[in-house]
Amino acid sequence: MPSFCVDGILNDKPVGFFTASDTPYGKTYGNWTVEWWRWILGIPKRINPVVDMSGKYSTMNQLNRDVLFLAGKLAEKGKSLPERSCKVSGQKAILVPVINCEANPLENPELKSYKDIEQRAKSDEDTIVSYHCHVDGKAVPVHRVRSDPLIFEVRLVEDNLFSVQGGLTHASADGYWTFLKPLPRGEHTISFQGSCEMGRLHSGAIYKVHIE
After folding, report:
1. What distance in Å separates the CA atoms of residue 166 and residue 160, rounded to the nearest whole number?
2. Is residue 25 within 8 Å of 92, Cβ to Cβ?
3. In sequence order, what are the residues at sequence separation of 6 or more whose Cβ sits closer than 8 angstroms to the Cβ of residue 20?
4. What CA–CA distances, in Å, run from 110 to 29, 53, 65, 90?
């Protein structure tokens, strides 16, 4: 595994970020990753930010006043990344899913117990071989964070990303994330990419973000 980046520089000033032990806005880092999964799995595939190429769905169901969620792409063999644009009203923190995974019985019926679910999420994330995130071309830290709690409830919409039966289920998640503190007003580029299954599949995205 590559080592974590130490810091980032934005216009000669450090890029602010939360560490895995922080509690941004009163929640643990792992709590926020659970909220990210509930957000992304609750949006129909046809308008889901994961499959959006331009960014027009970037703010879909973004109701939190403190944090903006970004999205990568579904892991695939191709290394090309979607290039998206979005506006952020006010100075929000930004949670970046550099590369992540979750497991639940609706997607994987062979998972019969909570232990099975936890282990599948962890073992899938253990296949990650690269991960990085840059803000305006400068590297910023990436942290591995498991969901908090390890098992959480989530509802998949019927038209979901994984084309499985929707409904309420239990899941576990693991991933590499960057959690940026609010960026200065203006234009910024956030790019992130990772590869899993020992480098066979790739995920990530490039965002042109306008902070208002």
Report:
1. 7
2. no
3. 29, 143, 144, 145
4. 29, 33, 38, 44
pTM greater than 0.90 (yes/no): yes
Residue that has been written with the tokens 């499959």 in this structure = 51
DSSP string, 44-68: -GGG-TTT-SSSTTTTTT---SSEE
Nearest C-alpha neighbor of 66 from the set 88, 49, 99, 43: 88
Mean pLDDT by 10 residues, the chain (212 residues): 38 81 98 98 97 96 96 94 93 96 97 98 95 97 98 97 96 98 96 94 97 94
Separation CA 159–CA 41 (nearest Å): 10
Q: How many degrees, rounded to 5, is the angle at CA 61 between CA 99 and CA 67?
A: 60
53-94, pLDDT tens digit by residue?
999 999 999 999 999 999 999 999 999 999 999 999 878 999
Cβ neighbours for 84, distance < 8 A, ≥ 6 positions apart: 52, 53, 54, 55, 58, 205, 206, 207, 208
